């Protein structure tokens, strides 16, 4: 215990020395340093100078405006950097509605409306005839408190920075499936403490996501080239790509000749599932699956999708229908996803939609674990009611008897299962080939 106390005292003393040293360095800088006429060889050097100055004084910066001249092919000739608190923060209508909804809740909401104070501090840099960037205007007046502590200033947005060495280590550890929180702890230990880390966990997560996004772009391009080659060799190979506003691949679908031909014979009933997640790019693998005359599963096409929204499912189902020459399946089995249900109603209006019983019961188990253990016989009665009923009347009577027997009239999840019984209970599909 004594050793721990001594160590804590030494660490506190070291931190105090570092803090005092950094604060004393601030006193060496004054407004005289930042003056009109200072020259820089490039804009990056000028930005770094102003950002370093801001760190020592106690504020953060951002690029506010720039000016291009048409006479020189839109070359930038003037840039203004301002204090990050310049301008006003105007909450959007969505923010206002969410704020109003949260008034009755006990969860505190972050108030972002006062982050900007219309601070007028800024510098204007212009490029001269020699190609050098020169400070043309300096305004040092701030209308808010400056943060004197480097331990706080380093977390301002313009001062947060991940070095190349740190980035390499982050990506190496991430490839080993190590969580962001664990990577952060390792970096803090490696750098000698949290006070030596000039970024937050969100920056670390963003770095990982950005690297994955770039890799996705490379891998997607390779995949599309491969698909083009396959289509050149076999015109019946089909693929389609859904792109976002920046023309980046968002969703991809593909199907080969064999699967398209198999659908002609065995496409009466299909299952569609999105429970497969690819670890590397956080994309969902969504296969269309059927059963052949040997009761073996066969693929009717595959997709990689970014999300599970109704728009995404509509694009995918419409693309799949195009590949299948517009032939609707007679029945489709999915999980209980509401967005998927909506898309099926739009794209497959004549197709019978059934929720997969296995998915329904697996989800129900999360709600019924306590009931299974506390009400002896309930689990067996529930399964018997669902699987052994031969008619609708028999099922509904058995369900009512079970509810009375175990006094479960107020159980919300059982009420939900009853309300959607037409979508998953086998007895309601006796006349349907599924």
Automatic annotation (TrEMBL):
Residues 269-362 form the MULE transposase domain. Residues 48-147 form the FAR1 domain. It comes from the Eukaryota. InterPro entries: FAR1_DNA_bnd_dom, MULE_transposase_dom. Residues 87-114 are annotated as: Disordered. This is Protein FAR1-RELATED SEQUENCE 5-like.
């Amino acid at each position: 215990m004594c050793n721990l106390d001594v160590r804590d005292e030494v660490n506190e003393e070291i931190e105090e020395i570092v803090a005092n040293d950094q604060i004393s360095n601030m006193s060496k800088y004054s407004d005289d340093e930042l003056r009109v006429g200072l020259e820089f060889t490039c804009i990056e050097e000028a930005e770094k100078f102003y950002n370093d100055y801001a760190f020592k004084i106690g504020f953060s910066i951002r690029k506010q405006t720039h000016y291009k001249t048409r006479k020189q092919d839109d070359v930038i000739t003037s840039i203004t950097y301002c204090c990050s608190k310049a301008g006003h923060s105007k909450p959007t209508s969505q923010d206002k509605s969410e704020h109003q909804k949260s008034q009755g809740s006990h969860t505190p909401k972050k108030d972002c409306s006062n982050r900007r104070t219309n601070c007028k501090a800024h510098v204007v840099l212009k490029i001269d005839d020699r190609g050098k960037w020169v400070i043309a205007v300096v305004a040092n007046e701030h209308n808010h408190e400056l943060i004197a502590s480097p331990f706080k200033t380093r977390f301002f947005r313009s001062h947060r920075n991940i070095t190349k060495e740190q980035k390499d280590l982050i990506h190496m550890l991430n490839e080993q499936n190590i969580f962001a929180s664990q990577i952060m702890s390792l970096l803090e230990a490696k750098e000698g403490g949290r006070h030596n880390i000039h970024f937050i966990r969100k920056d670390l997560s963003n770095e990982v996501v950005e690297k994955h996004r770039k890799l996705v772009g490379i891998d997607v391009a390779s995949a599309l080239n491969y698909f083009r080659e396959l289509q050149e060799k076999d015109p019946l190979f089909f693929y389609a790509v859904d792109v976002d506003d920046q023309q980046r691949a968002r969703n991809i679908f593909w199907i080969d000749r064999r699967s398209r031909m198999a659908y002609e014979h065995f496409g009466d009933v299909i299952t569609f599932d999105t429970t497969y997640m690819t670890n590397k790019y956080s994309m969902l693998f969504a296969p269309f699956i059927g059963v052949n005359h040997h009761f073996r599963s066969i693929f009717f096409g595959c997709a990689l999708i970014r999300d599970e929204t109704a728009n995404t499912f509509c694009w995918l189902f419409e693309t799949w229908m195009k590949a299948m020459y517009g032939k609707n399946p007679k029945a489709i089995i999915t999980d209980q996803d509401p967005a998927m249900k909506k898309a099926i109603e739009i794209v497959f209006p004549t197709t019978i939609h059934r929720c997969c019983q296995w998915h329904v019961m697996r989800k129900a188990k999360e709600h019924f674990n306590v009931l299974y253990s506390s009400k002896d016989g309930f689990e067996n009665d529930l399964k018997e009611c669902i699987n052994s009923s031969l008619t609708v009347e028999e099922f509904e009577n058995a369900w009512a008897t079970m509810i009375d027997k175990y006094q479960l009239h107020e159980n919300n999840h059982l009420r939900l299962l009853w309300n959607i019984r037409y979508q998953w209970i086998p007895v309601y599909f006796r006349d349907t080939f599924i």
